[in-house]
Amino acid sequence: MIEVVGLTKFYGEVKALDDVTFDVRKGEILGFLGPNGAGKTTTMRILTGFLSPTYGTAKVAGYDVVENSLEVRRITGYLPETVPLYNEMRVSEYLGYMARIRGIPRKKIRDRVDYVVERCGLREVADRIIGHLSKGYRQRVGIAQAIVHDPQVLILDEPTIGLDPVQVREVRQLIKGMAGERTIILSTHILPEVSMTCERVLIIHKGRIVAEDTPEGLSRRLRQSERILVRLARVPSQPLSALGQLDGVVRVEHVGDNLFAIEAPPGRDIREQVAEFVVKNGWGLLELRREEMTLEDIFVNLVTRE
After folding, report:
1. How much is the CA Rg of the chain, to the nearest whole Å?
2. Lower CB count within 10 Å: N or C terminus of the chain?
């Protein structure tokens, strides 16, 4: 649905994007993750036709964002980091106005406004003035204007920034509810947003793509050892040396509260033999699980490597 090849953008002598290449499948939610200033917003603006690249190409549903800019805008919904709202207008009035701008036939405008009001949970504030709404409701109005013309592609730039935890959860649920029916790019620097919302992660740093995979796939690629956690009911006198004698164990660490971290070479699963060993010795197995790298671990690993 979205295909980006060799995208490069200069602002004067500053290279904001450096040979960026990626694709997004139809119906997928892609997390576009990176620190502030990494090139996320520049990429979003190019994909939505607001900026032209210096080099490279980008296509949305087969339309080139430079040569077919109007077609791209017709099939794309965009929520910029600063939501484009008219504070003096009422919610339903504003959405009707945006529907007209988007070229929706007059006879269908009311139906589309009713749909997005319901879809975005705006029914109780539909007649209120936008300037009087909370930040969470204003963000919902921003998403509603982005989908009022029923776009195939939705691009969201920092959609939860500045929201409180309850509002973040509401907006997150709204985005996840659109998975499958629209292709979505979620640009953010907030790590939990990506791990809780997106199927695949693309990490950009200093204008270059440094990783692209599922969170689980990135974890597998970057993990230097297999690490499992085991919690014992009864700790032996010398637990580190006892566990360390198992075949394949590289390192054992006491991490607290009868909990031990056991490392093995990458790709080697020693959980079964650890469980058998603990049970056989009568130590009481309370917990045994593989420790996965968090998205934060992955992110820090990649950007500090640069």
Report:
1. 24
2. C
Q: Would you state the pLDDT for residue 99?
A: 94
At residue 296, the pLDDT reads 65
Helix axes 91-101, 106-119, angle to 10 degrees: 130
Element (H, E) at 52: none
Three-class secondary structure of residue 128 per DSSP? coil
CA distances for 191 relative to 8, 67, 247, angstroms? 25, 35, 36
Q: Which residues pair with 19 in a beta bridge?
A: none
pLDDT in tens, 48-60: 988 999 999 999 9
> Quick one: 257 exposed, middle or buried, by C-beta within 10 A (0-12, 13-18, 19+)?
exposed
Domain 225-292 has CATH 3.30.70.1560: yes
Please identify every stretch of the chain with a pLDDT value under 50, giving residue numbers as ranges.
Answer: none
CA distance to 31, 231, 237, 272, per residue, from 34 (Å) = 10, 36, 46, 38
Instruction: Return d(Cα 95, Cα 77) in angstroms, integer.
Output: 13
* Residue type at 264 in one-letter notation: A
Please name the residues in contact with 34: beta carbons below 8 A apart, sequence gap of 6 or more: 40, 189, 203, 204, 205
**Domain limits, the chain:** 2-213, 225-292
What pLDDT score was predicted for residue 9?
94
Instruction: Quote the pLDDT of residue 144.
Output: 92
Are 300 and 292 spatial neighbours (Cβ–Cβ below 8 Å)? no
